[in-house]
Amino acid sequence: MLQRLDQSKAEQLLRENPNLNGLLEQYPKGMRSLDTGLTGTPKGKREHSDIFTISNGPVPHFDAAEVRLAAEIKEQRNAIFELARHDPKQALKSAPALPGSPETRAQTLSMVGGIIRERDPSIAKTAVKEATNLSVGFDPVFRLDILKDPADVYLDLKDQDATTTTILDGTKLAEELYSKDTDPSNPILALKA
């Protein structure tokens, strides 16, 4: 990508980091070299696009087994999303059995609820409720990300009480994060744009 955007900058980075040449040869399409299904576009109405997480911290050693496991989990998630389109009950049963982190399971349940909200509102509510309950102990930033889908599902299904409760939970988390961010006794030293 950088080569297409700024050829001279890409060449400079390669000169400064010669070990990148081998990685570029091994993975010429970046993440898409590992998973050709990554498109960056949603699969259907109200579904999320593929998401990448980028860190500016230290890069951990490449672990092929970990990458394979992540690809397998992604494949299983995609199968659950497809299953939700024709067998919502089975998709609801499959999501909590996913390997990986509780965050992955909560996000999957939340997305299943979004996929089936129009077809089977009862199962959609159950899916997002399970996602919300599973997210109780999560980092506030991630929990906020989980809560936005249930709030949207509840709103679409005209469940005023559940919508209000979910939005209030999100508001409390946002206030908690804001309080930490503005605490003068513990300033955040990162540049704020």
Can you tell me about this structure?
The protein is mostly helical and 193 residues long. It has a domain at 59-181: Serine Threonine Protein Phosphatase 5, Tetratricopeptide repeat. Helix content is 64%, strand content 0%. The protein has ten helices and no strands. The protein has helices spanning 2-5, 7-16, 20-26, 31-34, 64-86, 88-94, 102-116, 121-134, 140-156, 160-181. Helix 5 (64-86) packs antiparallel against helix 6 (88-94), helix 7 (102-116) packs antiparallel against helix 8 and helix 7 (102-116) packs parallel to helix 9 (140-156). The model has no long low-confidence stretch (mean pLDDT 80).
Write the layout of secondary structure elements.
Blueprint: H1 2-5, H2 7-16, H3 20-26, H4 31-34, H5 64-86, H6 88-94, H7 102-116, H8 121-134, H9 140-156, H10 160-181
Helix pairs in contact: 5-6, 5-7, 7-8, 7-9, 8-9, 9-10
